[in-house]
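Let's do one together. I've listed all components of the complex below, 230 residues spread over two lines.
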Amino acid sequence: AQSVTQPDIHITVSEGASLELRCNYSYGATPYLFWYVQSPGQGLQLLLKYFSGDTLVQGIKGFEAEFKRSQSSFNLRKPSVHWSDAAEYFCAVGHQTGANNLFFGTGTRLTVIP
Amino acid sequence: NAGVMQNPRHLVRRRGQEARLRCSPMKGHSHVYWYRQLPEEGLKFMVYLQKENIIDESGMPKERFSAEFPKEGPSILRIQQVVRGDSAAYFCASSPGQTRVTDTQYFGPGTRLTVL
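Okay, and this is what the predicted structure of the assembly comes out as:
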């Protein structure tokens, strides 16, 4: 069965520092992988996605993520965090077989301190 | 290009009442998904619909919950005889459905249901 693990419930970083949010998945085949961001009281916004090809994916707002099949990971990174990046971040995995529902991790809450 | 729209944004119901949540997909999107987010948890898939068809309802509770996506109008998630445990944020997503394997879902702002 598919599952997504985000081991860090809450992360605090200083503005301008680098950021890495971890995501591990369990899936029998090559998955489709997504990162979404949710600001308080808002819906989810797609940051980036991986379907195939280059394992380093660039997204919006300066984020990138790297798919590592050997580690079953899809970690999200940003070289320099801005105060506006404070939000909840969700990793999700989708099927390649055609089924369309996404499996979400429990999220990582990012706090940015001045 | 308007995004996915959901209304109401906040809904308060008393136990035993009915809740109706509406979702209008993005223009040109023919696929709709509903997810539920309980406090401090990630989103859980409930149901996937195309126009006039339920494709996958494997995440829907067996009783009291139903969903539809009529030929005209928004998709509706209906919860009958609500209980306190139904309090959650309900998110709708839509996708173009052009190719199933690379479809990307775009989410609405959610409806926050509170059951008193």
